Amino acid sequence: MDRRAFLTSFYTPRTGTNYTPAERTLPTGLEPFVPSASAPWDATRVGHLLRRTMMLPKWGEITQLMGLTPSAAVDLLLNTPSDPARPAAADVATEDPFQISDPVVQNGIIGGFASTMATLQKWWQDVFVSSPLSIVEKMTFFWSGHFTTQFNLDNIDYVQAPLLYRQNQLFRALCLASFRDMAFGATIDGGMIIFLGGNLNNKSHPNENYARELMELFTMGIGNYSEGDVREAARILTGWHTCRYTNSFTPPSGIFSSYFNPLDHDQGSKTYLGVQFAAVPDAENTEFLVKKNEIEKLIDTIIAQRTQETAIFVCRKIYRFFVYSSPSGTDETVITAMAKIFTDNNFQIKPVIDALLKSAHFYDNANIGAQIKTPAEYVIGFARQLGYGKTMEASMDAMLQTIFQPPNVSGWTGWHDWITTNTFPVRSKLAADAIAAMTDD
């Protein structure tokens, strides 16, 4: 069979240029999965659970969970922490290279950014490889693709490794906790402030980047807000900055932290999603009070005024990540049920994940083996399962997924984007190299 025949053997050809795959609705829902003769709790289903919640399982992990009930296996994954040691890359501080006139010194600092970033990337890859039976790393990975931040900003600016490490820790700490707290934390996160123009957002020239993406990509989705809401949210967010260089202002909270500059904050009254935000008197124009009365209120307003829209939007992304990533393959009935759990539990993340991973829908035969592995899952999976960890960074780069460097603020599209004429040969070669490296030892 030639390559074209192989790649086309998995689907029935359609004619025409506007073909859209049919919606994929299954008979199963969020009712608890009960093993049966036709759907046993065996290596197939345990492996399915672990492939979706980790970067591919080891055989010993599969056999361990086969000795538990499905519910107990999920409980183990949800309740086992993952707290890796702090990497040296977390605290590498430099001067601002763009304030240095000597090009040799400037280029040396910028080159150091890339080197430190590579060290941080390797740190997380190694954490994935040695992860315990825990969903924490995979959930942290999910949130890093939701509240996206890039290391390299168009080759002219950088969200340095220490900022990305701190953001990683934010996602790690809250990955199964409160979405409200996650959104609040991301809003004043140092890396996010740099990435989406927060440093440029002041009362004279409000920068609308983060305000727009907060609504369009991070919470409620497009179509649920107005351009006026974008402008008002940007005004609410004015005044927040990030300290990232040793030769710039350092707040009491230290380098690589975010801080508030009252002189840059718009103290006027605002109206956001129909909710009034009172003018800020000088005495209340402080970091503590603005954080509480405006930033927290901004997130609370989104959740209160766009409750269902936000719940559906976030749960659809969770569904596509853990169940089936085809844009046309989501089961809206299941997503609506997930959203109800989300809202009933005050936007706590863990109850949604718990119900999904214990559901009959998750273990439906149609969902087993249906997901196209991301490059990270594929490459790190070989290291976990076979001990083949060579060329991890280069292989992921060649397959168009670089950890800490999503392509844009929308994150990785995934699905068929992972299998192209350029990336499929890389997958094949990696598999062949890993098999060739195996021994009988």
Keywords:
441 residues, mainly alpha, two-stranded antiparallel sheet, 18 helices, 47% helix, globular, disordered N terminus
List the helices and strands and how they pair.
Layout: H1 3-7, H2 43-53, H3 59-66, H4 70-79, H5 103-129, H6 136-144, E1 152-153, E2 157-158, H7 161-174, H8 179-187, H9 190-195, H10 209-218, H11 227-236, E3 240-242, E4 258-260, E5 270-272, E6 275-277, H12 287-305, H13 307-322, H14 332-344, H15 349-357, H16 375-386, H17 392-398, H18 424-436
Antiparallel strand pairs: 1-2, 3-4, 5-6
Helix pairs in contact: 2-3, 6-7, 7-8, 8-12, 10-11, 13-14, 14-15, 16-18
Summarize this entry quickly.
The protein has helices at 3-7, 43-53, 59-66, 70-79, 103-129, 136-144, 161-174, 179-187, 190-195, 209-218, 227-236, 287-305, 307-322, 332-344, 349-357, 375-386, 392-398, 424-436; strands spanning 152-153, 157-158, 240-242, 258-260, 270-272, 275-277. The chain has 441 residues and is mainly α.
Please provide a written account of the structure:
It is built from 18 helices and 6 strands. Helix 6 packs across helix 7 and helix 7 runs antiparallel to helix 8.
Beta-strand share of residues: under 5%
Low-confidence blocks of residues: 1-22
Query: What percent of residues adopt helix (DSSP H or I)?
Result: 40-55%
Shape: globular
User: Averaged pLDDT, please?
Assistant: 92
Terminal-residue CA separation: 34 Å
What is the count of β-strands? 6
Please provide the ordered H/E string of secondary-structure elements. HHHHHHEEHHHHHEEEEHHHHHHH
Count of discrete alpha- or pi-helical segments spanning 4 or more residues: 18
Strand order of the largest sheet: 1-2
Protein structure class: mainly alpha
Main sheet?
2 strands, antiparallel
C-alpha Rg, in Å?
23 Å
